[in-house]
Amino acid sequence: MIDHQMDLLNEVVETGELAAVPVIRVSRRARRLAVRVYPDARVEVVVPPRARPREVESFLAAQREWIETRRAQALRNRPAPEVFPPQSVPLASTGEDLRLHLAGGTGRLRVVETEGMLRVSGAFTPATLKAALRRWLLAAARARLEPRLAALAASTGVPYERLSIRRQRSRWGSCSVRGTISLNACLLFQRPEVVDYLIIHELMHVEHMNHSKRFWQAVERNCADWRALDRELLQGWRRVPGWIFADH
């Protein structure tokens, strides 16, 4: 078990192989080393519990060119810093553009959705307002995505057990062996066709817990344009407002 991630990081950084310090994440589910470069150019290395620092160092050295190429691409495509609070919260999934109304006040911070706007009342700081908007986003996602999931489950004839809404940096959705469909609240910022594809994708996992040929055939039967929509979803993080994850 790797208990001292900073020691492991120091060993890797001392090699001078990377321009950016990677985040080391130990995952009990991981069976092998894996690296991901996020749209904001962060580098994350997923490490199995029994991996040794030397293995991680060698892995990063072998992946250095790929990592730096992806980081350079991410830095080129990174959007300009956003002003916070935003003037509005556009939800591409429903075509809504909810204006942010800062009502002020000294009481408890509240974010209430009403008549096409988000009314913010009470005292707040940027950090507390971001937290409040994120809580609202989770509730808004459940209210908007759950009816769509139910409708697509009915039309495809694939039942599911329950819905879980999460705010994740790297996964748009998942399906558990017990039939729980998890959807990322950030799907609200994607086009409705893309959202439907992702939901169908996860529903097909209820019957096919893999990415086999039969799985993709099932996806295609219910979403003929899935290839183009899947490519679009890969770029979907660009449509997610910065305040969803950024704390500064």
Strand tally? 10
Structure class: alpha/beta
Question: How much helix, percentage-wise, in residues?
Answer: 40-55%
Mean pLDDT: 89
N to C succession of SSEs:
HEEEHEEEEHEEEHHH
Measured by DSSP, the beta-strand proportion falls in: 15-25%
Gyration radius, in Å? 21 Å
Unreliable spans are 1-6, 8-17
Major sheet attributes: 4 strands, mixed
Spatial sequence of strands, sheet with the most strands: 4-5-7-6
Shape: globular
- Count of helical segments? 6
How is the quaternary structure best described?
Answer: single chain
How far from one another are the termini? 33 Å
Write a concise synopsis of the structure shown:
Strand 6 and strand 7 (117-121) form a beta hairpin.
Your description of this structure?
This protein has 248 residues and is an alpha/beta fold. Helix content is 41%, strand content 20%. The protein contains six helices and ten strands; from the N terminus they run αβββαββββαβββααα. Helix 1 packs across helix 2, helix 4 packs across helix 5 and helix 4 packs across helix 6. The radius of gyration is 21 Å and the shape is globular. The two termini are 33 Å apart. 26% of the residues are buried.
